[in-house]
Amino acid sequence: MPLSPLETSPSPRQRAEQHGSARSPRLELITSEAGFRQLQPAWNRLLRLTPDWTPFQLFELQALWWQTFGADSELFIVVLYRDTEVRAIAPMRVSSQTYLGQPRRLLTYIGDRREIDRPTVLREGEDPEALRLVFGFLLARQADWDALHLYDLGKESVAYTIATQVLRTSQLLSATRDVPVSPWVDTTGDWDAFLKTKSRVFRKTLRRRRRQLAQQGQVRFTTHQTHPEVAEAFATFRRVEGHSWKREQGLDLGREPAYLAYHSKLVDELGPLGKVVFRVLWLDDQPIAASFGLVEGEQFVALHITHDDRFKRFSPGVVLTAHELEACYTDQTCRIYDFLGGHLNNKLAWEPNLRKTVDLFAFRKEPVFRIVFAWRYRFRPKLRGHMQRLGVHGAYRRARAKWFGTPEPDPEA
Fold this sequence. Notes:
Radius of gyration: 23 Å
CATH architecture of the largest domain: 3-Layer(aba) Sandwich
CATH topology of the largest domain: Aminopeptidase
Number of domains: 2
Shape: globular
Structural class: alpha+beta
Strand content: 25-35%
Mean pLDDT: 88
Order of helices and strands: HEHHHEEEEEEHEHEHHEHHHEEEHEHEHH
CATH superfamily of the largest domain: Gcn5-related N-acetyltransferase (GNAT)
Oligomer: single chain
Helix content: 25-40%
Strand order of the largest sheet: 2-5-6-8-15-9-14-13-12-11-10
Number of helices: 15
């Protein structure tokens, strides 16, 4: 969805000056694309002031997601002002979702957990008062939505605490659900010291894989962060992905035209800003593993990694990750290396720190939601527990994957 020209909407400061006293907190709802675009300076100013921020909250990335996937949603951005200055921004949207065959309006963050991890309210420090005002405003606008989904909230975060407190004052059906952990590594220390904290078996296996690769030819590790190098590196990534198990299982970037278009635009638009980093593992002139991620400030988030299955006996993905982490430690290019969620076995092998997150749901008390609520948060967890105890839950997930294309239904669907 293209963004409208800026001149069609007054600035946030002009709008603030139109609303009462400049001394009291004011909340405003932004629903126009022009208003969204005009928030860019305040948005990126608040970004690194937010305790639980990530590169996913960059304005440029949020605008890119909206341009690519926002056609079936309406903007619902809540802005809190202090005098005429923006104090907090809640980047929300309202989309149409079907519950038991009936369409309803879902209020959630701009983005989707496939592309945008751990969204949050941008603000100056923890600022519990700002969070309370923003979440209270969302509840006050219940006429504009039917269901609420706040995903990937830090389980020990102030945002999660305030959101649950505010929801308790409502008449809504509400529930939480733990989601897979998000592993990360603090790379401020020494690489060798970090490696020594890993198990002897892990270190021995890594050395053996590196040695075996070196016996096959010249091994190189390259980093690409400048433009137009990142565009060429993206083509290399896609080349490696063409020989990956992800391609065979429909998990590659090309699995959906819009998904590939989003990542292509990400490279084209954020690459020139130096916010996209590609790393490639080569054997002679053959790329055998590749990865890319986002970098902002001291944070690096690993978006995707792939390897050529013809070389899988050498664990090229593990070797590439080792090179990535070593580069972060040695060059001090980042303080936090964030693995994100997804397929966790290869990530947990590094014994990283684990960030626990939770999804928060709320529904109107109407028949369709009472049924959905009872099934999702009362009966299905008990059924899953019984299946796990009987040892048939794995078979159930495989059957779902075969017949429906996904092991578990999307929680907000």
